[in-house]
Amino acid sequence: MLTTSQHALIDAIEQLDFAQVKAVLEQGLDPNFTDPEKGMPISIACDGLFQWWEIVCDAYEAGQTLTEQEKQQALQVHLDILDALIQAKANVHLWDAEEFYGPLWDAASAACVPAVQRLLDEKVNPNTLDDEDLTVLSSISQLFFECDYDEIDWSETLPEQKQTLQLLREHGAKMTKELTNA
Predict the structure, then answer these.
(1) How far, in whole angstroms, is CA 42 from its chain's centroid?
(2) Which of 3, 65, 88, 156 is the most buried (most CB within 10 A)?
(3) Residue 100 CB contacts under 8 Å (≥ 6 apart), including other chains
């Protein structure tokens, strides 16, 4: 059973209410708890990045690409919440036991370069394997392009996708076949 403060934190994350997230965390709430239906707060926050990615993708599809400023403006509350959870010592290294994904995978699958960078700055391992024994780099490449990283036709990628995958690579992310052949 979750406490009132735990419920308040999850509600604030889902509603993108940064002021409330900050207020609850400043009361000393440990963000390393699990909502039986939704998971841990860090996972909920990183899952929420899909809201931003959908806005970006919808704009591309409509031929009305957002400016960098518009993208950043829409993303900022997500980044603020992520940063507040990290500062409150949320476990960014977890790997969701039910879905077999972690915060880095969630951020990368939303092509959210700033969130991926923030998690990599926290030394999250980019070579953790998912339930199909794929690394984050291989899994995200498959998700975006249905092929592995070394087979991507970069002319077919959105800038955020390319930047995300290249950022992972720059931080030591390997394709699954590179780990198994090492």
Answers:
(1) 9
(2) 88
(3) 130, 131, 132
pTM: predicted TM-score of the whole model, two decimal places: 0.94
pLDDT digits (tens, 9 = 90+) for 126-160: 998 887 888 999 999 999 999 999 999 999 999 99
CA dihedral over 18, 24, 30, 36, signed as positive or negative = negative
Whether residue 179 is predicted with pLDDT greater than 90 in this model: the reply is no
**Does residue 84 contact residue 27 with C-beta atoms inside 8 Å?**
no
Please give the C-alpha separations between residue 113 and each of 26, 66, 69, 101, 155, in angstroms, as whole numbers: 27, 15, 14, 17, 19
Q: Which residues contact 70 (CB under 8 A, 6 or more apart)?
A: none
